[in-house]
Amino acid sequence: MEFDIAFWFCFYLAFFCLSTYLGYQKGNLIAGILLGYVLGPIGALLMFMSKDRRHIECPSCHLEIDRRSYICPKCHVQIGLRAGAP
Q1: Gap between the Cα atoms of 19 and 21, Å rounded
Q2: Within this chain, do residues 58 and 48 fall inside the same structural domain, yes or no?
Q3: Looking at per-residue confidence, does 76 or 16 come out higher?
Q4: H-type alpha helices, 1-86
Q5: How far apart are CA 20 and CA 60, in angstroms?
Q6: Where are the beta strands (DSSP E) in 43-82?
Q7: Residue of 53 and 80 predicted with greater confidence
Q8: Which domain holds residue 25?
Q9: Do 46 and 60 fall into the same domain?
Q10: Which residue has the higher pLDDT, 39 or 70?
Q11: Which InterPro entries match (predicted)?
Q12: Quick check: 36 and 19 in contact, CB under 8 A?
């Protein structure tokens, strides 16, 4: 009985940590924490499928760049009015 509880706790904790890490990597830490805490494995899956908020795609060379960039480091095209900025 105690092994079952420990197993499920570790299983849930692993997916909570994974969801939190994915949220941090995608620039949405709070959603990662909340989804991991409430939904466990399903929350980790939702965070894996969510949109990356830290990067945008260059319109000319399609390189992922930081959303606060003014110029693409690869093709040196100016990004129009900080595309993707709130």
Answers
A1: 5
A2: no
A3: 16
A4: 2-25, 29-39, 41-49
A5: 33
A6: 55-57, 64-66
A7: 53
A8: 2-53
A9: no
A10: 39
A11: Multihaem_cyt_sf
A12: yes
The two tokens of residue 61 are 């060379």
Say which amino acid occupies 51.
K
Task: Report the alpha-carbon distance of residue 30 to residue 50 in Å, rounded.
Answer: 13
Q: In whole angstroms, how far apart are CA 55 and each of 4, 58, 71? A: 41, 10, 13
pTM of the model as a whole: 0.68
Which residue type is seen at 6?
A
User: What tokens appear for 83 in the block?
Assistant: 């595309």
- Which two tokens mark 18? 């994974």
CB 47 within 8 Å of CB 23: yes
| 26 and 62 fall within a common domain | no
